[in-house]
Design goal:
There is one protein chain. The chain is α+β, with helices and mostly antiparallel strands and 535 residues long. The strands form seven sheets. Strands 1, 2, 3, 4, 10 and 11 form a six-stranded mixed beta sheet that branches. The chain has three domains: 199 residues, ATPase, nucleotide binding domain (Nucleotidyltransferase, domain 5, 2-Layer Sandwich), CATH 3.30.420.40; 77 residues, ATPase, substrate binding domain, subdomain 4 (Actin, Chain A, domain 4, Alpha-Beta Complex); 108 residues, Substrate Binding Domain Of DNAk, Chain A, domain 1 (Sandwich). The protein is globular and about 80 Å long. Helix 3 crosses helix 13, helix 4 packs across helix 10 and helix 5 crosses helix 6.
Length: 535
């Protein structure tokens, strides 16, 4: 059974597998590149373009081109093109379809069984949406794996035979994470994670494109260039190219031309870092927060500091981390996550074929898997024994009614399950009370932290599920209700609320409020299958 790892990135995506030598290898896309821009162009009602050509039309046809869709995963968000409505899941599925199609052509095997990566800071809704995107694309998603976990596998940290502690700084095209991971021959354990899924290299590109436009207009104040989508597209492409080049040189020149006007705009690394200083500082604020959380858990030193994501190449990243006392190293930052996902896919494929954990696999079964995967029996047993232990990515709680000193009512979120709690997790019952006299039903709303920092402010959280305890006798205000949260290693959240006077209770196995139902997934799969897709 061939398995594949897919790095479904915000700005670029790629596919990898373990080759016949036992090493991870990137499978090139339809035009021979390692990575594919995560951009979809609805060129015709029945045809979409994914990749470079789609990206080239982003400013020219903004009504028909979708970029950065990963930032919308798990949200109630729709895009309409040629009269057809699309969700983030269905758009991501179109990207996955093209990745799988091109990879199948280039490696000669069907791309069906896959592991898809997500930022460590992705919550329940985003992970659920990613898995459903794979299903809509017609893939069998073996697992969803955190990007820093995949990166740790790629850096081959597990092969040292020692327990090591890693700090992963992952600055991708549209998301940012910092994660502390402990690795040993038997286990990868996520200690803590933090991040911002609305911060990434695309934001650096935008700042630089704005500067290029300002410089051009300063030299040609009567120009209408700011209203020309083709010119803005050239600036966007130029900004991304300059950002990359300034990682290795001190200055670059951009020749901007519009309607006969020409400007030769010089951009220095110093100027670029000045324009984006606020962005890089945001990453270091999150880094410091993660270091503090790690210290609270007894970790003060790291064996390695790994840089992941193409934007981590910017010299300001390494300089800032060194100022925080960290010594970063970089290896294949653009492709590390996909290659690590290929390792993880191999591990998952072995576990699928062998008996459940805790039972001894028969020698014949192990040998069959080894022969099928062309690896040694010893490696099969070692990989089957690898465990991944993660943490709760964000805080979860319930909405509660409060009253200020003047009696004015307002709602907040009381968090019950805290971020960075090791999984699986189960909280002690937390006591709440009915809000009004003579209540005959109790509505329980489940909310998830949506910002980078835990906050009880309602607007800093997202409503993800709800349930009702009904048929109660009129209860006095303050009647006790106990609420317990439980989360499994796969992110499945269960909530149990019990009204203590009557014993009536409510059990919620979390259904994502903004997610697609099974019926909607089936409908989306049929809709996506009707499109022809090309690079």
């Amino acid at each position: 059974m061939a398995t594949f790892g897919i790095d479904l990135g915000t700005t670029y995506s790629c596919v990898a597998r373990i080759d016949e030598t036992g090493r991870p290898a990137i499978i090139k896309n339809a035009i021979g590149d390692d990575t594919t821009p995560s951009v979809v162009y609805f060129e015709e009602p029945d045809h979409v373009v994914v990749g470079k050509d789609a990206k080239a039309n982003a400013k020219l046809r903004p009504d028909l081109v979708v970029s950065l869709i990963k930032r919308q995963m798990g949200k109630s968000f729709e895009i309409t093109a040629h009269g057809q409505t699309h969700s983030p899941e269905s758009i991501s599925a179109l990207i996955l379809r093209e990745l799988a199609r091109a990879a199948s052509e280039n490696c000669g095997e069907e791309v069906k069984d896959v592991v898809i990566t997500v930022p460590a800071y992705f919550g329940v809704a985003e992970r659920d949406a990613t898995r459903k995107a794979g299903a809509i694309a017609g893939l069998n998603v073996l697992s969803i794996v955190d990007e820093p976990v995949a990166a740790a596998l790629h850096y081959d940290a597990l092969s040292t035979g020692q327990t090591r502690t890693l700090f992963v700084y992952d600055l991708g095209g549209g998301t940012f994470d910092t994660t502390v991971i402990k690795v040993s021959p038997e286990e990868i354990q996520v200690v803590c994670t933090d991040g911002d899924h609305h911060l990434g290299g695309a934001d650096w590109d935008d700042r630089l494109a704005e500067y290029l436009l300002e410089q051009f207009l300063a030299e040609h104040p009567d120009s209408t260039a700011a209203d020309d989508e083709e010119f803005l597209q050239e600036l966007a492409a130029g900004a991304e190219d300059i950002k990359r080049q300034l990682s290795s040189v001190q200055t670059r020149r951009f020749n901007a031309r519009f309607a006969g006007d020409v400007s030769k705009i010089e951009v220095t690394r110093e100027k670029f870092e000045e324009l984006t200083s606020e962005l890089i500082k945001r990453t270091f604020t999150i880094t410091q927060r993660t270091l503090e959380t790690a210290r609270e858990k007894g970790i003060t030193e790291f064996d390695d500091v790994l840089l992941v994501g193409g934007s981590s190449r910017m010299p300001a990243v390494a300089a800032g981390l060194e100022a925080l006392g960290l010594a970063p190293r970089m290896h294949d930052p653009d492709l590390a996550v996909a290659k690590g996902a290929a390792h993880y896919a191999l591990i998952e494929s072995i576990k699928v074929q062998l008996p459940e954990e805790g039972t001894e696999a028969p020698e014949a079964a192990v040998k069959d898997v080894a022969d099928q995967l062309n690896i040694s029996v010893e490696k099969v047993r070692a990989l089957a024994g690898k465990r991944v232990a993660t943490v709760v990515p964000r805080a979860f709680g319930i909405k509660v009614l409060n009253r200020d000193a003047q009696g004015a009512e307002f709602y907040t979120v009381e968090h019950v399950l805290r971020a960075n709690t090791p999984l699986p997790a189960e909280t002690e019952p937390q006591r709440f009370g009915t809000a009004f006299p003579d209540q005959v039903e109790i509505e329980v709303e489940i909310w998830e932290q949506s910002g980078s920092v835990e906050s009880d402010v309602l607007e800093d959280n997202e409503h993800i599920a709800e349930g009702l305890i009904s048929g109660l006798p009129p209860l006095p205000q303050g009647s006790p209700i106990d609420v317990t949260f439980q989360m499994e290693t796969d992110g499945l959240l269960r909530v149990h609320a019990i009204e203590l006077k009557t014993g009536k209770d409510l059990r919620i196995e979390l259904q994502i409020k903004s997610g697609l139902s099974d019926e909607q997934v089936s409908e989306a799969r049929s809709a996506v299958a009707r499109y022809s897709v090309s690079a």
